[in-house]
Amino acid sequence: MSRPLENVDARAAAALTHPLRIAILWALEDGPASPSELARRIEAPLEAVSYHVRKLHGVGIIQADEPVVLEGNVRHPYRLTVTPRIDENAYDQLPPAGRDALAYAALRRAWRAAVASLTEGGLRRPDAMASRIPLPLDEEGFREASAVLVRTEQELQAVGMRAAERLEAGTPARLDGTVVLMLFETPKADTARVTLSDLYAYRDRDSPPGNTNAGGGQAT
Amino acid sequence: MTKPLEDIDARAAGALTHPLRMAILWALEDGPASPSELARRIEAPLEAVSYHVRKLHELGIIDADEPEVLEGNVRHPYRLTLMPRVTNDVWEQLPPASRDALVHATLVRVWRAAMAALPAGGFRRGEVFLARAALTLDDEAFEAANAVLQRTEHELLELSAQASERLEQSGGERVNATSFLLLFESSDEDTAAPMLGDLYAYRDGVVTDEGSQGTK
After folding, report:
1. Helices A19-28 and A46-59 sit at what angle, rounded to 10 degrees?
2. What value does the mean pLDDT of chain A take?
3. Which residues, including other chains, have CB under 8 Å from residue B182's CB and lie 6 or more apart?
4. How would residue B214 be classed by pLDDT, with cut points 50, 70 and 90?
5. Half-sphere exposure of residue A57, counting CA atoms within 13 Å on the CB side?
6. Which of A189, B94, B183, B202 fits a disulfide with B98 by CB distance 3.0 to 4.6 angstroms?
7. CB of A154 within 8 A of CB of B131?
8. Closest chain A residue to B144 measured between Cα atoms?
9. B176–A187 C-beta distance less than 8 A
């Protein structure tokens, strides 16, 4: 059951004041999980996870499912009631350092997902895409570009819904896709330089594609 | 002077078959440069850089500016005439290993750009956009998603052209932006799991150069 997004902005902002809450919400995007499952998943202490799960439950962003008895243990799974979107307003309410931290974590997450896919050949499909677009803009153009990406994400969700209907009817084979959309300001192009060895690095690396230890999930 | 995107597909394929050519084009995105400046910048031998600069010039992807005399030396700067885009047709022509290498280099480039942008406040505007979504698809939907992203790309380039016009006519503040659109088959691995460490890492000043990982 999802509610209109407008209702959750303020609550989303409250939820995002703590990194652990963000981690919990992101983990729940992949499906319901109990506090102890969450703690394992995001590598955080159970006590802190339980505390923030209760808080998130309190503001109504997550809800408790029926307890499940599994091998004698009672499991208390929670699920997202809404997809907490960090919209412009919620983002603006965060302190600058909070915005940076959130952006960094989101970038790392996108990076890990992309590199894991790359090593498994998930980017070889002719209709896969990795398009970096340098965009000289002005203030107005930046706002417009942001609006284009908001709409793009909605269109992609609609594409997914239509696929879900076809899949329910049972004919086509299911494919799990990931889409990443980014728009940010690049004040200093110079520091982003890429040398020739960077370009050869992937071709020349010791481990062939298929080896998953290629750049992704190493801890910081 | 930029030319219509459609004209350059075949030439872009030529340009992108060699990593050094791609490195040259990327370096020229930051402004005109001479072969020796390029060689320093991308850390490649001058002779090879000069050769590929000539080839790119022949393909019409880069233009020679007027030579300049600087401290007794003649400098021959080149500039991009257009930014070669990898279209679906070009993409399909590339061997799989080249696709992987190109994607990896692109990821590295984006990662570096993002890490340079972060401390400079590049992620602080409310309109910054950073979304990752898992989609349940089939073949038809994958193609449809690709079409959506192609259109988005064209719209973004169009917005950039309009912004340039506005800036030329009435001045105003230029905002340098980067957009990145990615669509891929998800890995089975749970790689996208959020880790609390990541959320604290930036605050604590622990930032990795992802680009240097996964190489020997």
Report:
1. 80
2. 78
3. A110, A114, A129, A130, A131, A178, A179, A180, A181
4. very low
5. 15
6. B94
7. no
8. A159
9. yes
Neighbours of B7 (CB within 10 A): 11
- Whether B119 has a pLDDT exceeding 80, the answer reads yes
Of residues B141, B180, B192, nearest to A159 (C-beta): B141
Q: d(Cα B158, Cα B176) in Å, to the nearest integer?
A: 15
**Cβ <8 Å between B135 and A23:** no
Residues 49-78 of chain A whose Cβ lies under 8 A from any Cβ of chain B = none
Nearest CA-CA distance, residue B59 and chain A, Å = 21
Average pLDDT, chain B: 80
> Which residues make Cβ contacts (< 8 Å) with residue B42, sequence separation at least 6?
A193, A194, A195, A196, B20, B23, B24, B27, B49
- Listed residue (B27, B109, B120) closest to A111, CA to CA: B109
On whether the CB atoms of residues A57 and A78 are closer than 8 A, the answer is: yes
Q: Chain B residues with CB inside 8 Å of A176's CB?
A: 134-137, 185-186
The region that residue A43 occupies, defined by phi over 0 for left and psi between -120 and 50 for alpha, beta otherwise, is left
Q: One-letter amino acid identity for B61?
A: I
- Give the pair of three-digit tokens for residue B160: 């950039």
Instruction: Say yes or no to pLDDT of B84 above 60.
Output: yes
User: Which band of pLDDT confidence, cut at 50, 70 and 90, is reported for residue B113?
Assistant: confident
ipTM comes to: 0.79
- Residue owning tokens 């049972």: A170
pLDDT in tens, A185-206: 987 655 566 777 776 666 555 4
Which residues does chain A have within 8 Å of residue B28's beta carbon, measured at their own beta carbons? none
**Is any Cβ of chain B less than 8 angstroms from the Cβ of A204?**
yes
Give chain B positions within 8 Å (CB) of A161: none
Q: Is A58 exposed, middle or buried (0-12, 13-18, 19+ CB in 10 A)?
A: exposed
